[in-house]
Amino acid sequence: MENIKLSDKDRQILNRYNHLLMAIVGEEGIYGYAYVSEDEGVYDFSGFQPVGNNGYSRRDELETNSQGYNLLYNLIDVFFDQNSNEFVNYLYCDDCTGYGHINVTYNPFNSTFNVNIDIGTRGYNTHEHDFTFERLKNQPQGQWGERYEELKKLGDPTFIEKMKNDYGNTLEITYDGGGDSGQINDEGETPTSVVRINQDIEYIGYEVIAIYYSGWENNEGGDGRITFDFENKTVTLHHTENFEDSETEEIGEFKLI
């Protein structure tokens, strides 16, 4: 634990304010946060509010115009400014998003700040699904009303033969997206060449993805590939879903003396 030494005047102000906080919030104390990014450092400190439910709506109970509140606010504001580079350093990692937020709690019973940082991270999960043409052509309606009309083409011998003539025995297509926008790429790979895919394969591909991953392009999105085996009448879907998470690092405790 580190100590932050106050002047005699500030210590008197703090003691009076601590008594107010003890009566209002008890040992749970008060809480505030700020954002931090690689580009901007620490910014937008929220100020303090009581810990717990409805804390924001109770901010006025803290007498936010008082000397005691302003003393705590200014101490944390200076602390953030002096240690901005240290906080930014936590954001550098292979899976980091470059953003985070810093949490500060204050306990009036022991005049102590506790500081930690939530670091934004990226992650992903991968999945593989195997289908037969027979299963796909009979795919039941989805939970959101998807009817999978395009998949019925995989039960048509004439269509399958045409695909073999166009692409050979196998074709792999890819897709990617995020931020509520995504698409199947317009080129695929056969065992011998890169080819442009037709609309039939594109629409079938979207329906294959939607069986398990409707809305895959939303938020952090995802990507993957679909392999059609026209000879053995199978489809393999390889899907990667992206997500954002966070991990918490304790910065430390700081006692006002």
Walkthrough of the structure:
The chain is built from 6 helices and 12 strands. The chain is of the alpha+beta class and 257 residues long. It folds into 2 domains: 2-110, no CATH class; 124-243, no CATH class. The strands form 2 sheets. Strands 1, 2, 3, 4, 5, 6, 7, 8, 11 and 12 form a 10-stranded mixed β-sheet that branches. β9 and β10 (194-196) form a beta hairpin. The longest helix has 17 residues, at 8-24.
Percent in helix: 25-40%
Secondary structure: number of strands = 12
Average pLDDT confidence is 94
Order of helix and strand elements from N to C terminus: EHEEEHHEEHHEEEEHEE
Instruction: Return Rg in Å.
Output: 29 Å
Low-confidence stretches: none
Summed up, the helix count is 6
How much of the sequence lies in strands comes to 35-45%
